[in-house]
Amino acid sequence: MKDLFLDVDGTLYSALQARIPESAERAVKLARENGCRVFLCTGRSLSECSAYLNYNVDGFVFSAGSMIYAEHKRIYDRPLPRQDVEEICRLGEKYGFGWCREGAAGAYSDPKGYATLMRYFSGGDRPLEEMRNRITASGSYPMEYEDENEKIYKICFFNHESEEAFIPMEQALKHPYVMTVTYRDPRFHYCAEVTDGRVTKGTGIARVLEYYGDRKEDAAGFGDSMNDVPMFEACGIGIAMGNAFEEVKKKADWVTTDIDEDGLWNAFRHLGVI
Prior knowledge:
Elements: E1 3-6, H1 22-33, E2 37-41, E3 59-62, E4 67-70, E5 73-77, H2 82-94, E6 98-103, E7 107-109, H3 111-122, H4 128-137, E8 140-142, E9 152-159, H5 167-172, E10 177-185, E11 189-196, H6 201-212, E12 219-223, H7 229-234, E13 237-240, H8 246-251, E14 254-255, H9 263-271
Parallel strand pairs: 1-2, 1-12, 2-3, 7-8, 12-13, 13-14
Antiparallel strand pairs: 3-4, 4-5, 6-7, 6-9, 9-11, 10-11
């Protein structure tokens, strides 16, 4: 196995620990020492991965396939039209959701979205100043920080009731936009992302493999939520985390343990890359 594609939230990053588990850090390091290329394949934008830009990986698939870096070069870039971004955010507000629109320089939230993400990036309730420092370190800011020329690649919406609450908005979206539930945890929130349905983590992986001249069979994908299913389909092997959605586990070739129970380490061991 040459190429390993890792989702971030719920796969590499633990919300409960508010960090990457130590065993996952070791697994990534050892896999690269053993000759594998490791890529972060995430729904997060470049700005939200600022803490990982000098991380021990070979490249990035950001914003669910909308921006790709390989060998420190941007090889693909597809932001959303500004008019569409504004229309989609207004639609989310109509249904009462907080939101975060994710760009290259920053991720920008309305007050509801910002409050939700402060808790998420802090692992729960903490002193307000600490939560603000943590969310800023994660590249997220209040809406007033957004520059009018900022390119937006994806929009996330949040509620604290259920994932079913997103259904009316999902049905109201216009082609080519799709809504995908990416996070469900009553302790924090429910999250659904709106993306261009023609661009996925799977199309991002295909572009990376083409860049290196590698085959689908050379790649393994690791994830936990519905936007990771296209990643599994683009790889020879798909591995779901123990904390993954049940629908995602059914699409995987193998299921490892929970992220907080050395899930990534055990998955790499299963593949024989460490």
